[in-house]
Every structure is written in structure tokens, then in C-alpha cells.
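Database export, one record per block. Field names are fixed; values are copied verbatim from the stored entry.
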Amino acid sequence: MGSNCVASTSIGCLFCCKGCDAEKVRNAFTFIPPQSSYAVETEVEQDGESAPREEPEGPCKMSYLMEGLEGSELYRRAAQASEVHFLTTRNGNRIPMVWLRREKVSPAREAQTAEASEPPIVLLHCHGNATDIGMMMGPYYELAKVLGVEVCGVEYSGYGASSGRPSSGNSYADVEAAYDYLVEKRGLPPKRIVAYGQSVGSGPATSLASKKSLGGCILHSPLLSGIKVVDPKPDACCRPSCVWSCFDFYPNDRRVRHVTCPFFVMHGQRDDIIPFYHGLRLHKACPKQHRWPAYFPTRAGHNDLVETDMRAYFGEVSSFLQDVRRIASGQKVEPPFEKPPQVEMSDASAQGNGSHETVKVGPEDGRYRQMRQGNVL
């Protein structure tokens, strides 16, 4: 029996073990929420004493529950530069969104730059399935500081301080609630919002880009679709994504055809969690007029795409965001068909090794590799 047949048969067994519930099968592939790394302080100080916040939708502060994060100067700076907003999704779940503001991350540069009078570029970040927004605060801070942008990290239902349970449907509602908040309540122009989907986060990010007006979309180690991750041989017969297509979710390979904004894919060629061909095929599936040159580092895996070459990573993302800024300002920009030269970044600290701390956004327990081998139970 071939490897595709073994994997497909094993998924059939998993379906039976999950009570023939397709949603439970999808969640078994996808969501592994860690123990929450943070808490949200929903009380304010009044005359030296704590008092409930009168406006529950107002900004709150994040505190860390993990000693390693609390002891990190980088994470402490990130918490100080951020505010947390609770949002209610269309599915009725209450989720936190952490927002790192430009004037708090780099106040001196904010006052000096010509862009200070313009609305900021905001990265609307959808994280991977093995982390939460607390663990992502260090990377959020570095993205904001190095690239001169603001970062909004969306928490998924069932993760961290959110209510509800994790599911693909809830994750769509989560990112849409954050987008609607930025556009409708805060008045941010859609062309200055860039969806950034990392790993499993590529699902809600691509969905948003296929339905809403955006300034751009960045996919970091993305997947073609949820079930295609477990295809042992993606072009052979009897592969799980063909046999069990009814279980599929996050169909990025179909939705990418409907994006109408600049689209930028990054994927490490040594990725053994979500194989490299996922990013390559998504890049090729994007309409040519929206397809920006991809970044495919040869030595990077799934969880170290940034750390493998920080200069290259920040340079590529910065170049893409420069084009987003030009388009948002009314300039006509065509996708560059040659690699752009190295661009000057806002913060020189990222040009060396920097202080970046690796976050395990994708599972390192070998679950996807085991699924491709037919070990799903």
C-alpha cells in the first residue's frame, strides 16, 4: 500500500474515532492552543486602589504569566508599548487584540518622520497554532520598531484570554472583527492595513484578503490548505486531500486567486512542518498583477525563517511595505519583476544578529510528519 493510501486510511480511522464529526477531525489537524502566556488587566488604578474599568471595550494592558517572558527586557518593552482591546466577533466570542502603537514603540522617530502626519501602516497579524499573542509580543515589537509600522496581533477564539473554542470558522470571524474595528471604529484606511498570516495564520489572512480591501497580504510559511499539509505525495493518487476533500479547510490555494492587493509569500526551503512547495505553489497561484517577488531562503525551516538571515528577512518585508505605502499614497506601482536592491531599514539593530527571540509558531512534535506517515491516532 502506498504512502498516500496509508495516510488516507488512517484519516478514515480518525474520523470514526472522532464520532464521524468532520469539525473534530479538522481541529485535530490544526489547533493546539498552549497554556495561556498572558493575562489582560481589565482594572484601572483609582486613588491607589484597583477599580473595574467603566468602559469594557477601552484599552487594557497585558501582563505575562510565563516567567521567561516577564524576565525578558524585550517583552517588557513590548507590553509597555501596547494596548489591548477586547472585541466581540460575529460568532459571539470575546477576543483580545493587542496593538503596538507607533508613537509608543519609537516616539523620537515618530516626531521626526514625514510620515507622522499620515495614518500608519498596520500589520494585522494572525499567528501560528502553537503560540498565542503573549508569546508573540517580542516579534511584534521588533516588526514595529524595525519596519516603522504598527502591529495588531489577533487572538483566536479558545486561545489565551479569548472565550469560545478554536475552529477555522471562528478564526475567520476573529480576524474580521479586528479588521472591522480598525476600519469602522478607528477610521484606518483599508489600504494601510496589511494582513500578515504566519503558518496556520495564513488561513484567516488569505480569507480576509480575498474578501476585504487591504493594502497588502504577507504569508509567512503558509499552507496550501488544511488537509494538503498531510499529503505524503501531493501529486499522486489517493492522497488525503483528494479522498477526504470534505474535511478540507483554509483553502488558500483557491482563495488566493481572488485577492486584489499586493501579495507577498515567504517560505523556507528546509521547512519540514509545512513543506516548501506549499509556499511556492501559492505564490504561483496568485494573479500575476498582484504577485510580488517571493522570499524563499534556502537554509530556513518553519520556525526560523526570520533568524536564519534577519537582514534579508527585514529587507524583503521592508521593500514590500514601501510599495504598499506608495500605493496607499495614490502612486501607481506595478509588481517588481526583478529582485529589489537591499533597502535601508528604519532601525539598524536588525541588520546584525539583533536580539530576536525565536517563537515556535508551528508544532515541533512531528505531528504533521506523523500524519503524512499515517500515524494520526
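Remark 1: Confidence is low (pLDDT under 50) at residues 340-345, 348-354.
Remark 2: The two ends are 19 Å apart (CA to CA).
End of record.
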